[in-house]
Specification:
Number of strands: 15
Oligomer: single chain
Shape: globular
Number of helices: 12
Largest sheet: 9 strands, mixed
Number of domains: 2
Strand order of the largest sheet: 2-1-15-14-13-3-4-10-5
Radius of gyration: 23 Å
Structural class: alpha/beta
Length: about 425
């Protein structure tokens, strides 16, 4: 499988690794294979979605906003060269290519912990360094959110429509089916913002109205309603999802031995009163420093148990979008999932590769995905939609993702036309996304 071919797709028995830009102009040619396949995948008994940073970048671009900058920070204290060297080596070891601010923070946290063990006064110096860089990182997240909120009205509305359509394509399952499990490694609140726009009800592990607290207990709470005139037969409410933020969130705080979620508005100003000036001891927006510690410590242990429990079971489909397979602890769970024959993985990723210019960042992301597929094998259990055509949020929503199956009017219209003989065959377009129970 060529790593540097700009566009790759494999769905069912259809696969192409040598697509040209000219061929991709005929979108309908590929849509008739991809859209029905994704429609079938989305109706699996258990459906989960994993969204990475590419999702935020795509939505920000479509809305006229600015994607989050993950570039490296500049330390002011010694041994800053060794910290950056360690971060660079760790990034290369896991196949991410060059280090970013997350790798630097992990390295700095380990250094600070070492100084604390030794009783070295440098521990307080590096705590201040980490606080400063984390505050800058949080500000960058809020600025990226604000750029979406403050975009020009036409672009903003267009981006919001795409965001809502994207989420509804996954979330609009028949209520009697298991709820969509939506996992993300992002720290921003774009998903929550999209759910508010779409009117989706979000279930997570937080309990409470004024100051929600994270709970470790798994009660499988759901939302039901009683139809008028019917008692004792509650029905599942449509448009309910379960959300898990695997690496934390910008509005999570560790206070008094409890994890709380604060009501920080989407795109809030950087001086918002609920944004702490010294975040390293309270804000839960970064994976812990040591390798795989996030799968051991609270609350990461509970979140990753939820991830494994959701995907590692029969008749499960997992769709990844914008996730570059750079987190080994996440990849390990996906590998375990694929040991179950009835599971399926769909990888959708945007990476604009130009083989002539040798785009190193895109190449690193593509190589990680290809290498993951090669090691796992399970060819029949993995579908691929890679490249700037298939991974573009607008192209994906408008051409390849199933229309939200909650649209009962379209379903009834399709059935009536079939009964009247007005449709010789079902099209592969939006009207064909009939929801079956």
């Amino acid at each position: 499988m060529p790593n540097l071919n700009p566009h790759i797709y494999r769905v069912g028995s259809q696969e192409r690794y040598d697509l040209t830009e000219e061929e991709l102009q005929d979108t309908d040619k590929f849509r008739k294979y991809i859209e029905p396949w994704l429609t079938a995948v989305f109706q699996s008994e258990h459906l989960s979605v994993l969204l990475g940073s590419g999702f935020t970048c795509g939505a920000a671009s479509a809305s006229g906003g600015k994607p989050l900058n993950m570039n490296k920070c500049e330390w002011q204290s010694d041994p800053k060269e060794k910290v950056d060297k360690y971060a660079e080596d760790s990034a290369i070891a896991c196949g991410r290519g060059s280090a970013n601010i997350e790798d630097q923070i992990r390295a700095a946290l380990q250094l600070q912990a070492g100084f604390e063990v030794l009783g070295d006064p440098q521990a307080s110096v590096w705590k201040a360094e980490i606080d400063k860089q984390l505050k800058c990182f949080m500000d960058a997240i809020l600025i990226a959110e604000a750029s979406i909120c403050e975009a020009k009205i036409e672009k903003k509305e267009h981006g919001e429509d795409l965001l809502v359509s994207f989420l509804l394509s996954f979330a609009s399952r028949t209520a009697t089916r298991e709820r969509l499990n939506l996992f993300t490694t992002n720290y921003d609140r774009l998903i929550e913002h999209g759910c508010d726009l779409a009117g989706l009800h979000v279930l997570d592990r937080f309990v409470g109205a004024l100051s929600p607290v994270f709970r470790a207990s798994r009660l499988n709470i759901d939302i039901h309603y009683n139809p008028p005139g019917i008692r004792g037969e509650p029905r599942y409410l449509e448009g309910v999802i379960r959300l898990y933020k695997l690496h934390g969130s910008i509005d999570w705080r560790w206070e008094e031995k409890e994890l709380r979620r604060y009501a920080v508005p989407f795109g809030a100003p950087t001086n918002h009163p609920d944004i702490p000036k010294e975040p390293s001891g309270s804000v839960m927006i970064y994976p812990n420093p040591a390798k795989d510690v996030e799968t051991l410590d609270y609350p990461y242990a509970e979140l990753f148990r939820d991830f494994a429990a959701a995907v590692c079971r029969p008749n499960t489909s997992l769709v990844t979008y914008g996730y570059g397979f750079g987190d080994e602890h996440v990849n390990r769970v996906i590998k375990d999932m694929l040991t179950i024959p009835s599971t399926h993985l769909v990888i959708i990723a945007w990476d604009k590769i130009n083989p002539d210019k040798n785009d190193k960042i895109a190449t690193a992301s593509r190589k990680r995905i290809i290498e993951f597929c090669r090691k796992v094998g399970k060819r029949s259990q993995i579908s691929l939609l890679l490249g700037s055509h298939f991974g573009d949020l607008e192209f994906l929503v408008q051409n390849y993702l199933p229309k939200p199956a909650i649209d009962q009017i379209t379903i009834r219209k399709t059935k009536l036309e079939e009964q009247r003989g007005e449709r010789d065959m079902k099209p592969t377009g939006a009207d064909s996304n009939e929801q079956t129970d």
